[in-house]
Each structure stands twice: as C-alpha cells, then as structure tokens.
Design goal:
heterodimer; A: alpha+beta; 4 helices; 4 strands; B: 3 domains; four-stranded antiparallel sheet; 7 strands; PhnI (chain B); Alpha-D-ribose 1-methylphosphonate 5-triphosphate synthase subunit PhnI (chain B); Phosphonate_metab_PhnG (chain A); Alpha-D-ribose 1-methylphosphonate 5-triphosphate synthase subunit PhnG (chain A); TAT_signal (chain A)
Amino acid sequence: MDHQPEQKTDRRQALAVLARANSAELAAAWEALSDAPAIETLRDSEIGLVMARGRVGGGGAAFNLGEVTVSRATVRLASGEVGIGHVMGRDTGRALMVARFDALWQSPGHRGWVETAVVAPVSQRLAKADAETRAKAAATRVNFFTMVRGEDA
Amino acid sequence: MYVAVKGGEAAIRNAHQLLAEKRRGDRSLPAMTVGQIVEQLTLAVDRVMGEGSLYDRRLAALAIKQARGDLIEAIFLVRAYRTTLPRFGASLPLDTGRMVAERRISATFKDLPGGQLLGPTFDYTHRLLDPALEDDGATEPAVADAAPTEDGLPRVTDLLADAGLIEPDGTGEDAEPADMTREPMAFPAGRDLRLQALARGDEGFLLALGYSTQRGYARTHPFAAEIRMGEVEIEIAVPGLDFPVSLGRVAVTECQMVNQFKGSGVAPPQFTRGYGLVFGHAERKAMAMALCDRALRARELGEDQTAPAQDEEFVLSHSDNVQATGFVEHLKLPHYVDFQAELDLLRRLRSEWEARDEAGREAAE
C-alpha cells in the first residue's frame, strides 16, 4: 500500500490514534520495525480503573459517571524519551506497545516511521469507520411534519 | 442478628457443580462465546456495564455468561471485580457535544440543527416476533447515506438557552465531585452525588419512579428535548504532560428532559431540566434517570415534596440493585439461631398471655 504524504500530527493526536489501534495493528508494525532501539520499561504495564466523569446537563459541574478499565505502561528509550501508553480495557500488551510507539514518536529518528507505519494507517481505518457510522446514521434521518388536524382547519 | 453456621462443604461444592452443568445446558448445542455475547446481546452488556458501574464490554459479557443471563447477578460479579483494581484517577468530563452520534432525536424541536437521526431503534417497530430469527439467516447491511452527518452535533439545550426560557447547565466550576464509591452516602446529597447514584441505579426501579412522576406523584410535565447515543472520547490528565491523553472512546446515552415549571419563590417560570447519562445504549434508563433527577430537584426549586420520587433518601438508598439484592436475598441464608431465639421469646410471651387469660377468666367466674 502506498502511503499518503506524511501527515503531521502532534503527540496528543498520535496517542489518541495509538490508544484505539488494535493488538494486530500494533504487533505488525512492531515486527516491521527493523532498527528498534533499546527500550527500557519504567513502569510495567498494569490494569486499573479510571473514573469517567460527565457534566450536569452536558455542560455544568462534573459528576462521577462510572469507572472504565484501563491498562497503562511507561517506557524509556536509551536516548531518554519517555513514552506512555494508556488504553481502555484489560490489555497490558497493548498498553506497552502504545508506550513504545509514543517513545519512538518523540525520537526524531523514528517519528516519520511511526507516523507512516502506525498512526496514518490506523487513523485512516478509524476515520473510515466513523464515516460509515455517520453515513448509516444519516440514512435514518427523519423529517417529521406536523399535520393540521380536522378541527383546526 | 445473623449467627454464622458451619458445615455443608460437600453439599455446597456439589451445588456449584450442578450450577455449572445447568449453566452449560444441552451439550449437543455449541457453547456460547463471550464474543457472541459482546456482539449479539449488546444491550444486556450495556446494562451490566451501566449498573455494574464499570465500562468493559468483555468483562460484562463474561459476567452475563457466568450468571446464566441473570443481569443483577452479572452486575454483582462486575462490582466485585472492580474492587480488586487500583484507581488510576478520574477522566476529564466527557464532552457529549463532540459525540459521534448513532442516534439523536428530539421530541420538542422538529427542525433542530443536525437533524433527527433515528439510528438503531426499536421505536416504530411493530413488536411482532420475527420467526426468521429462529434461523441464522443473512442480515442485510444497513443503508449508508451519501451525505453523512456532520462532525459534532450541538446540544439542543445549548441552542435554546439564550432566551432564558430554558434553565442553563449551570457553571462548570471545577470542584471535586462527590464519589459514593469512596465516601458513604450522606444526606442532603448534592446533584453530583445524586447523578452518580442514578447512573448506576437499577433500571427497573428508576423506570417505576419516573413513571410515578408522570402519573401524578410529583408531576413534572416532562418533554424529551433530546436523546443522543454514540461514542465520546475519554481523556485523562497525566502528570508531567501539558495535554490531556486520550484513552479511547466510550459509548454513552444522554437524555435532556425539559420540564414545564410555573416558577416558585426561588425560581422564575421557565423550562427546568432533568439530566440522564448512562454507559452504552441505554435509552430507557437514561430517560428514567432524567425524570428522577428532575423530581429530586424539588427542594432546590422550592417545590412541595409530596411523592416518593422527590425523596432523595428514599430514592438513593433503594436504587442500587446489588445492595437491594444482598439484603433481600440474605433472608434465605440459615437464620436458625436467630429464629430459635424468636421462637423462645414467642413461647414465653404465649405462656404469659395464657396465664393472664386464665387468671382473667377465673376472676370473672
């Protein structure tokens, strides 16, 4: 598959895409990486909870909605970049992979590769899925009109 | 008082083995997979996530399988599991205005910007059983429109807040919200605590209470201004980073109820609001939650408190189905000592009563 011209995303966007990449996508990219530098695990991946919050009325004061399972990990490249991985669900392997790619993304020598090999294709898949969701929702768009009832006419 | 009993180990072990066999059912049929439950019993999974107060589809599906489809038992399993995990922190508040909506309707505003999207709904179906589902026939793919919905749909309540006829959301001041999983419930409860309790409350209980307000027990004249369902990004703040980190997306259902309000000593005549927000696709629950939220605001709005749905201590103390089932179902555990004591007391009272009765009759003679 030929790649689109390299799409610049900042780290926040890259992490948001990585968090939604599936294990197969992350594993395939990792295996394709020929010059993986030494990566040290700073914090072993672990499973825990994040309390999801909502806002009263959608825009008011915060309240606690319920918890979400989250896996997280932290790694460091020999050159010092610290990568973090936070993903929903109980998948410590995925969290570790995301942390590695986040670290690599910060390393000038690897950013382009991470963008091309992981962030861009996953981001395209996600955009396609969203477009499909939106298109299917749009097909159910309804235009209600009010009828004038007999006694009002 | 409950006094512990000993014994019965073998019987209990065998009962659990029998339970496992019954759970499996007819072995000539293939076992159901967790993946199948996740994909095909999605609304049961959503209910277990909402009332289990833990967003994890596979875990909820596993709980449903283990509980043989008993959703309250599955919710209990999920609640028990969550206590084994550490809390990493809290998310930033979800922005439902940025939802990728699968469904979004309004019963009050016909032509709202972004339109009315029916989405995957049971509404307008004829509620006739479909014999075709007896077989594993092919399902037609859903129709996709060439003009998809735009990115982000404004919340109806934001669109109509300007005139002052609809109560605004209130300020999003960043006070730490109450957390009933950390501190015991205290009354009077703030709206933050009430919404947390309602979000994890039993759907049936909240549905009945919401219904009671419609039937006149704390009438609030509700309209469903907007119901939306879809995925929202969830982000956390990570120490040392100057940007929020996305964890992925959660599916939620949101209900904005607006309620006619004639005004009171403390509030002008305007549409007041009730709010519902629930994990997953859980529209009935979100609507019931919004009705209960509004009814519970009676004190704040200076309304007469006359009905059960307005009594926060009553509602919040009984909305949790794990607590409720624990207390109701503990009655079937051995109470032999307890009962024996009651029996002894009753025998004593009875003999005293009979002695008095006899003495009375003798005196009368």
